[in-house]
Amino acid sequence: MKKTATIILNRNLPKETDALVEHLKKYDGDHTDIFVVEAGSDKDKLSKYCTWHVTTTEAVKHGLRYSRGMNYGLLQLYKTGNWDRYDSFFLITNDTKFPKNQNTIETLQKIQIEHSKIGIISPCSDRWGEKNLIGLNSIKYFWFIHNNAYFLRKEMLDQLINKDNPTHMNFLFDGDNFRGYLSESEIIAKAYANDWAAAITTQVVAEEDESYLLDKNKSIKTESYDENLQLYVDEGLKWVKKKYGFNNRWQMMQYSKLFYDKFFEYYPEEKFKKI
Q: Reduced to 3 states, what is the DSSP secondary structure of residue 172?
């Protein structure tokens, strides 16, 4: 099996990013190549593993956030001819934490091989209610999954990416949704619409360290946690209204669930993984 391309998004937190890279190198080094996108980071705050330092005026002032940052990293691999070197892509931000001694990527690769209809896999968080629905060391398909650690099948991405005039604004995620509220629902709807499932597994764990936004927002050059959360929701609702005509989160999630339910009509043999 080919390696996984892991893309990590950083902004002015080199120590934390380096620790994440070194964890993955230690426990999954034989299974992944790691790429770090620096989203307008200061020159003296770059990860020592920096791959691409984005220094556009926009990135320096506001950062890239998840959609634009992950688009940027994926697009660089695509444009440089490295896209086909990988069977999968693991998208994580630098506030992602994995347990010691966990072979995260190797396990996710095995799941991808064993379950041919899974296009998106996410490790489960111990804090997620979904954990109780899935059970121990198991997998279930969902129509909404938090995107702090998405493991994406290349075969699915080949169907979803924008190959006509691709930019960091449109390659996979919609960069007009700057902070990314409801972007998970959009990508999952697209996956199911193209006959790919989105799954959570309890075989591996990933946690989001929210202390980065709570305690380090000045270093990251972003708003306070509460202000950022409010902008995240407000801007996302404006985006979903403009793009889809939906007035709230639940309408967007129901849109995703329609494709989820239809998937099992076409693939009844997968129903045992339905929640």
A: coil
Q: What is the mean pLDDT of residues 243-266?
A: 98
pLDDT value of residue 139: 97
Distance CA 80, CA 162 (A): 16
Q: How far apart are the first and last CA of the chain?
A: 30
Whole-angstrom distance, CA of residue 157 vs CA of residue 120: 10
Check residue 212 and give its pLDDT.
86
Q: Which structural domains are found in the chain, ordered by start? A: 4-273 (3.90.550.10)
Contact 120, 183 (CB under 8 A): no
Residue 228 dihedral angles phi and psi, to the nearest 5°: -60, -40
* Spatial contact of 28 and 59, defined as CB atoms under 8 Å apart: no
Write down the pLDDT at residue 73: 98
Q: How far is CA 20 from CA 23, 52, 91, 92, in A?
A: 5, 17, 13, 10
**C-alpha pair distances (Å), 218 with each of 12, 36, 169, 239:** 10, 21, 25, 26
Q: What number is the average pLDDT over the span 158-183?
A: 97
What are the b/e assignments for 22-49, b being 16+ CB within 10 Å?
A: ebbeebbeebbbbbbbbbbbeeebbbeb
Please write the tens of the pLDDT for every residue from 28-75: 999 999 999 999 999 999 999 999 999 999 999 999 999 999 999 999
